[in-house]
Amino acid sequence: MPETAPPPDPCALVIFGAAGDLTKRLLVPALYHLRQAKLLPSELTLIGIARQEMTTEAFRAEFGAALRQFETVAVDQNDWQWVADRAHYLAGTFEDPDTYAKLEQLLARTQAQRAGSRNCLFYLATPPQAFAVVVHRLSEAGLTHEEPGSWRRIIIEKPFGTDLASAQALNRDILSVLAETQVYRIDHYLGKETVQNIMVFRFGNGIFEPLWDRDHIDHVQITVAETVGVEARGRFYDQTGALRDMVPNHLCQLLALTAMEPPTCFGADDVRTEKTKVLDALHRLRPQDVATSVVRGQYGAGLVNGAKIEAYRQSSNVAPDSATATYVALKLTIDNWRWAGVPFYLRTGKALAKRRTEVAIQFKRAPLALFRDTPVERLIPNDLVLHIQPEEGATLQFSAKVPGPVVRIGGVEMKFHYEDYFKAAPSTGYETLIYDCMLGDATLFQRADTIEAGWRVVQPILDAWQQDGGADLPIYRAGTEGPKEAEALLARDHRHWRPIADPGEVTS
Ligand code: BG6
Fold first, then answer.
1. d(Cα 209, Cα 183) in Å, to the nearest integer?
2. 405-443 tens-digit pLDDT
3. How many angstroms from the chain centroid is the CA of residue 387?
4. 221: part of which helix (H) or strand (E)?
5. What is the pTM of this model?
6. Which of 116, 96, 98 is nearest to 108 (CA)?
7. How many other C-beta atoms can be found within 10 angstroms of the C-beta atom of residue 189?
8. Which of 144, 177, 264, 416 is buried most deeply by CB count within 10 Å?
9. Could you give the CA distance from residue 410 to residue 378 in angstroms, rounded to a whole number?
């Protein structure tokens, strides 16, 4: 958001799933941060809806406790009180039409606090099975109806579908009662500063874009490595797995931002159209390609950062013979003029050696070694690495002469660290998303066709895995770089992955 960003117009923010983990861990701190930055409308009503009976006072106290638990610095009491004073609680189930009748009354009762505004943002922080129900009930109650001069918008969390067909069905269902302009589908990766920076890096600088193509780039590696295991999410994760959980959304978004064509302007639809186009241009894997282009794995017991972690199959709510992959690596190619022949290698996994999310662009080597005794293979390839998290910044690697009478070539790095240049306030990533939605800017949200394009990429893999029932699933030791089969995927192309842990770093 711009430094001198204006607060949005008066509105109500209604959170469905207000007692849930997402609300407590991310939405409450985000609202508080927005207040601190003076980026909430001063005429705001907050309404939390959940099943359990609770008074508004108890709800405010729970909100406050959550904020103190999840905020990393001391909470400013005035700013917190400002948010709490605007909060109301409504007990009800998502299916019951009565919940919506009560919501309508509460919105009417509090309308004067919002200077008469009808603007309303509904945030669906609910389990995915409730998305369509809540949308339909809201619509039946007339709550999604937009009158001239006012808006009604809905933020929908992930996962959006479990495969291509279910995502298409959910889109059809939602769009049967809402206009696309009212729907804001979340991918929280787009709320991350460093992810947004990929576009600025590419299109805000003159020097990179001329090199950003098949003539200069050898390949791209996109890594989202996590150290966490499945933790308490066994029930969800065992049905989901690494591929569904991370690839059609987060990894596809990183790929789209890295590979898209420059949009004609930064309007929401211009950006989203370019992202969708590049995802649509990804070469469709055929069933026989899945065996050669995709590797999966599941973590066994091990040590992550020195702490013991039990095998995935031993985790609670996970089947003891589960064939769910907790790691996936894949090779994709893009059938367009800019990228023909340039592989994009993607990998993501849980219980790995180190938490590291990055996009690494490896440029082609210099065609000749300058010095007769230096074989061209010994030249350091130029890697440009965009560090997304936890390190935030960019590194460019290149060759330099090692000082001394003999000409020797060594690899060196230029590094940019965000923290060296910018002082950022604490952020969950949801601040920008809530603020943008209140302003009606959908750039950082997924459009129906973008979501479906992501699912289209992984659908052949889901189909192939369904057929083989997870046969020969490699098990990798927790705290390592993942299954050795992933190394073989790149070795076949005479390439290798960048290490996840730094060389020499002891992680397991
Ligand atoms: C979520 C996945 O979407 O993203 C989780 O469901 C994953 O399994 C998380 O851990 C990763 O997000 P982040 O912001 O920690 O990289």
1. 32
2. 877 788 899 999 999 999 878 789 999 999 999 999 999
3. 14
4. strand 217-225
5. 0.95
6. 116
7. 24
8. 144
9. 9
Determine the atom of ligand 1 nearest the C-alpha atom of 228.
10
Average pLDDT over residues 280-285: 97
Task: Kindly tell me the sign of the dihedral angle through the C-alpha atoms of 220, 226, 229, 233.
Answer: negative
Give per-residue pLDDT as tens, 43-95: 999 999 999 999 999 999 999 999 999 888 889 999 999 999 999 999 999 99
Q: Are residues 75 and 208 in the same domain?
A: no
282 part of a folded domain: yes
DSSP reduced 3-state for 310 = coil
Residues 132 and 212 grouped into a single domain: no
Q: Is 226 in the pocket of ligand 1 (CB under 6 A)?
A: yes
Contact between residue 152 and residue 143 where contact means Cβ atoms under 8 Å apart: yes
Find the 192 Cα to ligand 1 centroid distance in Å. Answer: 12
**Probe target for ligand 1 pocket from 188, 195, 228, with the most ligand atoms within 8 Å of CB:** 188
- Within 10 angstroms of residue 490's Cβ, the number of other Cβ atoms is 19
What CATH number is given to the structural domain containing 129? 3.40.50.720
Catalytic annotation present for 33? no
Kindly state if the Cβ of 245 falls inside 6 Å of ligand 1.
Answer: yes
Is the dihedral angle over the CA atoms 93, 95, 97, 101 positive or is it negative? positive
Residue 373: both structure tokens together: 């005794």
Within 10 angstroms of residue 229's Cβ, the number of other Cβ atoms is: 21
Residue 110 tokens read as 């509090």
Examine the fold and report which residue of 133, 157, 181 is the final residue of a domain before the chain moves on: 157
DSSP for residue 367: S
DSSP class of 52: S
Are residues 250 and 120 located together in one domain of the fold?
Answer: no
- In a 10 Å sphere around its CB, with 0-12 CB exposed, 13-18 middle and 19+ buried, how is residue 458 labelled? buried
**Number of domains observed in the structure of the chain:** 2
Phi and psi at 501, nearest 5°, equal: -90, 150
Using alpha carbons only, how large is the chain's radius of gyration in Å? 24
Count each helix (H run) and each strand (E run) in the chain, helices first. 16, 16
Amino acid at 121: L
- CA atoms lying within 13 Å on the CB side of residue 154: 27
Which run of H or of E encompasses 502?
Answer: none
43 lines ligand 1 (CB under 6 A): no
d(CA 440, CA 226) in angstroms, rounded, equals: 33
Length in residues, the chain: 508
The CB of 157 under 6 Å from ligand 1? The reply is no
Q: In CATH, what number is assigned to the domain containing residue 217? A: 3.30.360.10
